[in-house]
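Dear Dr. K.,

Following up on our conversation at the group meeting, I've run the structure prediction for Phosphate acyltransferase from Sporosarcina limicola. I'm pasting the input sequence below exactly as I used it, so you can double-check it against your construct before we proceed with anything downstream. Let me know if the numbering doesn't match what you have in your notebook.
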Amino acid sequence: MIIAVDGMGGDHAPAEIIAGALESLAVFDDIYIHIYGDEAVMAPYLKEHARLKIIHCTEKIESDDEPVRAVRRKKDASMVRMAQAVKDGEAAACVSAGNTGALVSAGLFIVGRMEGVERPALAPTLPTVDGKGFVMLDVGANVDSKPSQLGQFAVMGSIYAEKVRGVENPRVGLLNIGMEEGKGNELAKAAYDVLSEAPVNFIGNVESRDLLNGIADVVIADGFTGNMVLKTIEGTALAFFSMLKEVYSASLKSKLSAVLVKDNLRGLKKKMDYTEYGGAGLFGLNSPVIKAHGSSNANAILNALRQARTMVQYDVCGTIRETIGKVETK
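The predicted structure tokens came back this morning:
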């Protein structure tokens, strides 16, 4: 299969993007990678490989570009050309660490929304203390959502958790301010009824304080709430490790103790590392589109490509297409 990659998107492009692409070719012998970007800029980081192809682009979408305008006007941008390749059938999936809003726009306007899907959803896999992780959607593709859309998010997330993450009969929870039925605002109350009838293993409401303890395999929220929870988790993890570093470097005694627990700390950091979980899938499109973290390193790109490969292998989009019509419209 061919996977298209935006070589110019992300804080560490193109060096880390290309390094991750080359690593993935060493790990998977059944994929071909087409990297889109400025060939002259990428040249210092490139290595010849039989399954790597470079497609030269004269433009790139910047992090501060207005998403819709950039996608419509920058026709030769690496992200736009990458998405077009998927639409034209030249690639089976695509990966970018670039401007999130622009990638959502490119996914909608170029790759195309799946028939029957009201809104796409951005869905990362977030860490849990047991190392299994959970899928959360939506985390920002939409600001506002309807109950029926949350129901569709549940179907898409459940299919992804089962097909890609290997979770049998994944538990789907609705993010709310309390676990009791009848809690929350009008959206949450109506969505509860929709999810109760959806073809998923709905376990009811879940609270944000329980997310990292693995209370559910799939967590459903509107994009506004989901994005705030996502950034709170990311910020808390960064602050926690910063405080740990400060504690273990405070004195000679603490530095010596850090040596003794170094492997344990390394394991803890890996468990909470977003790069180990790949990117955020943009569910509800005709083909897999993966948004890698803006600060992705080579390992994050490798895992985002792994994610795209698995979605194609297990025809996640096809399964979503077959199932999505079973969600009650409200």
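Two things stood out to me. The first helix runs from residue 15 to 27. The CA atoms of residues 194 and 304 lie 31 Å apart.

Best regards,
J.T.
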